[in-house]
Every structure is written in C-alpha cells, then in structure tokens.
Model the fold of this input.
Amino acid sequence: MLASMRTRPAVVVRDAEGLRRLPDRALARLDLGTGVLPLCIVRLRGEIRGVPDSCPHLGAPLSAGEFHGTAVTCPGHGRRYDMVTGRPVGVTGEPTAAYVVAVDHDEVQLRAAQPQRRRFGWWQRDRRKTRDGSATR
Done:
C-alpha cells in the first residue's frame, strides 16, 4: 500500500533557525540528526507542535501528508492524527506521541504535550452511582 501513497516533498528543518522561519500552518519534518526521532511539525497559533514522523499504523512519513484544521493526514491510508493530542481523528486506533517544540536561545527543546482531558456530554455530567449500582441525578 505504501507504494501507491500520494506524497509531496517534505520541508526539512534541521536547526533552531529553521524552526524560527517555519510559517504558520506549514507542515515540515524536524530532523535533528542521529539518535533523535524525526518529527512531523507544524506551527499552530504561534506554538510548534509535533508528532513522530512515522504513522503508527503503516509507518508512512506523516510530514509528506496534508494538514487541515489541527490534524495531519497520513499519505499511506488517509488516517488523520491530531497534532495537539496525537489521537486519531474520527476513528478509534492507536494514538501517537505528541510534543511541543520550543527554541531556547539556539537550542531545540521537546516537551511531551499534556494529554487532553476527556469531556463528558450533558447526559453524563451529573450522573452518579449509588451503592447498589443504579444511576441517580
């Protein structure tokens, strides 16, 4: 399936200066060299977000995919991953790690993104269980 994937050439960022010049909402590959996992990165609202540049499902390079909203689309099979949380969008599946990328002086820093808390709908908000297991309002 990877042989038939639709890819575009990925912009490769290798240093802090490249991160500073990254335009808003532009997808790129952050490659810091040997021993560091390449990341698929994008600048969102002034903050650079990243996920590993390998789709957890097929291993396709996510930086060669397309970016819409806050999600990157895998060029191999079309699954979308949220760049803020690392979770797949619209389907259940294996999430990927998510990072916040920052530049301090000329040093590139990676920080694990805080997981988003799951929000409950209005029908679940005020439900509590009694000792016998029945739900109350």
In short: Residues 31 and 65 are 17 Å apart (CA to CA). The chain has two helices and twelve strands. The chain has one domain: 2-136. Residues 2-136 form a domain with the Rieske Iron-sulfur Protein fold (CATH 2.102.10.10).
